[in-house]
Amino acid sequence: MSTIAPDPRTEIAALPHAGPSAPEDRYFNRELSWLSFNDRVLAEACNSAYPLLERLRFLSISGSNLDEFLMIRVAGLAGQIRSGVGNMSLDGRTPGQQLAAISGKVLDLTGQQQAILADIMPLLSAQGIHIAGEDRLDTAADEWLRDYFLNSIMPVITPQAIDPAHPFPFVANRGIGVLFNLTREDDGSSLVEMVLIPSALPRFVRVPASVAGDQAIYVTTEQIVCRYATLLFPGFRVDGDGVFRLLRDSDIEIEEDAEDLVRYYRSAIQRRRRGKVILLELDHAFDPAGEQMLREQLGLEQAMVLQLDHLVGVVDLSQIVGEDRPDLKFTPYAPRYPERVMEHDGDCFAAIREKDIVIHHPYESFEVVIDFLHQAANDPAVISIKQTLYRAGNQSPVIAALVQAAEAGKSVTAVVELKARFDEEQNLKWASELERAGVQVIYGFVDWKTHAKVSLVVRQEEEGYRTYCHFGTGNYHPVTARIYTDLSFFTADPCIGRDAAKLFNFITGYVEPQGLERLALSPLNLRETLYEKIDRECANARAGRQAAIWAKLNSLTDEGVIDRLYAASVAGVPVVLVVRGICCLRPGIPGLSENITVKSIIGRFLEHSRIWAFANGTELPSGEAEVFITSADAMSRNLNRRVELLVPIRNATVHDQVLEQVLLANLLDTEQSWLLDGEDGSWERVADDADGSGFNCHAYFMTNPSLSGRGDALKESRVPKLTLRRGAA
């Protein structure tokens, strides 16, 4: 196994003006940085330039993000506190200190969500869409809802008395319930009842147009239960009600001695549903006595309890975003299909054989990836397909292609990652379906996740066997491919094909690859390769040669990579980072990172591609620069505990597209960009150009086709060339 390069902090300490040494002065806290990212997502819900339902979508996304953060990250910190583990964060905080800081930020974030919802609701109401619209119900709508309650809700729900004779009911993760305070009419005795809302019921019920006319009236299921509670509790007076929602610890930890991963995960998924409560949300009128009872019964020692002004579970607003109102949404965008593949009559192999190609999703269609696999399944000359699967979605054409290939008698191997968080259950189902079709299913390593995105197809041709490869920065997931910006790289380079074959042998048979020709692989040598490239830029800068580093990442949290970039800054290397989410690096700190700039892009599409570019003695952007795409973020888990790939881009046209189109457009963006202040960790929107000539990278990609996908069309119509403006990088 390759050795990791020396700790860069030793090198920094030997340099003059090495900057602060205290952890809190060198790094931002990972969890607080993530919360800042969700702040930026939530800010998009306030963007008056966006259509109203798109603003509601961003509000829902911020809720979904926060739910997952609490169920995983906050649950992990609470677990450390319970077990007495004293692991310090990168910035030198104990779990207790982190949890205290997080609690304040979560309280602020949820308060913002409620305030934004309060602002958006009347705007939507003016457009005929009413959220929690009980005030809009006339007699006809009330009668319809009453019948709906009697026929569709009441048979499903089960009221349960809360007293010594009845055990406290189990409330599922993300479960919503209602507590009722009742008085028996015949003797005046009091009773507390709980009604849990089954997850099979919709969160929002839309009054049909035949009743509501042209008004879209949405009422939550729990509102309906409260509204018609007297039908549920005959003989009782309803004195009060309160809605609550809770989140549970949802992480799954792998036991080192797990003998059967499939069996282990099936039982672990069941255990996860009963994890400790992490968050309890209460509606604004929740009874204090009821809150105290929930605290006692649910065991909320490390849990947060939040009382919200308007709606618990804002994530469920996504249901309303589905309303058929195109006038309140972004103009639909239809991805382009690469002209170069069409020039070969849709023959993916012929197009790839001619020249490497990169597909830029979602601007270019994910269908080309599906077509590549379906063509492999149907082509008699194809003898073997190998495929990694991390997240494939609920309805996967990729799975269908692999099944088709196996049933056609081809040798098909699928590496199914069971440890893909929240997709474990779906991946177990896909694995079973693939095995039934005759696919050789491999579950990879016990300790490491297989996160690399690779397809390998071996084809018998006149010259002998030829290997075709696809490498992605994103998952083989047709739904996320429409909203995540990712790169799909196709090549028939025999060197890369040999490396990819070694990768699969490593995963399936633990055969550690020797003599990799092009690819770098974590946890073996990807970190070392990045260090070598950064160190070379440092050496070039010290020698007076051109030096620069550009990178586009989702997260930057790894101490070693951060310190290496600090060393580059101290050496005089300009470093420009586009980090969508978490960034623990502090830019612009004198003596440490004054040559580093960090920006984040949040907009219509979710930035997801990962790219590294190194000047290599030239001025960026340059055809001589070294450019890589990767499945790995700069996080310790990606570099130490995951199987990831770093793929060099050498073909001239693809190189130009990734560097001078994709990466450069991200650097030039002004309309969706935020800049990180290294002193206090705040993010500020990039100021609009005074002349109104702002640049929106998403709009640019929607209107300009990619270079490598154009084929002969480039001869007729060139793609507008981007120019690096002074100060942009």
How is this structure best described in words?
The chain has 729 residues and is an alpha/beta fold. The protein has 3 domains: 104-328, polyphosphate kinase like; 339-518, Endonuclease, Chain A, CATH 3.30.870.10; 521-716, Endonuclease Chain A (Endonuclease, Chain A), CATH 3.30.870. 37% of the residues lie in helices and 20% in strands. The protein is built from 24 helices and 27 strands. Strands 14, 18, 19, 20, 21, 23, 24, 25, 26 and 27 form a 10-stranded mixed sheet that branches. Strands 10, 11, 12, 13, 15, 16, 17 and 22 form an 8-stranded mixed sheet that branches. Strand 3 and strand 4 (190-197) form a beta hairpin. The protein is globular and about 90 Å long. Residues 1-6, 8-17 and 254-262 have low confidence and may be disordered.
